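Quick one: structure tokens for this chain, please?
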Amino acid sequence: MNDTPAWLSPAEQHAWRAFIRLHQKLSARLERDLKAHKLSGADFQILVALTDTPDGRQRFQDLAHTIEWEQSRLSHQIARMTKRGLVAREECAEDGRGAFVAITPAGRTTIEAAAPHHVATVRRLVIDALGPDELATLARLSNLILEQLDNEPP
């Protein structure tokens, strides 16, 4: 067995580093913009996942799976958001051990205020920078990498 890594070629290294810089800069910019609405990126991710469900709630385990977080991280984040009134924990009547995370009216008001600004930022920084063909390529490439990640053992 060969333990020598398959080093990246100059072109591969350039593409990888550009992708990493893009991810870091875009994440930092979106995080700063959300702070104007007193939300973190983590808050926003959870609120979006909850608003994507018809009743605004998900089982704790399902939410962890949806956003691909470990349960301990989610538990700490939910505790912080509960203190701020954005979400509430609800007991599960069918399963005494399970719990739901539900968006509160304050959480819904907060995300409804933040979402238009967030979408405008995404549009300005990403969508408007690309033509229709480039946007389709971005989606195709992103889906290829996501498929690779989904097929890789955790």
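The two ends are 23 Å apart (CA to CA).
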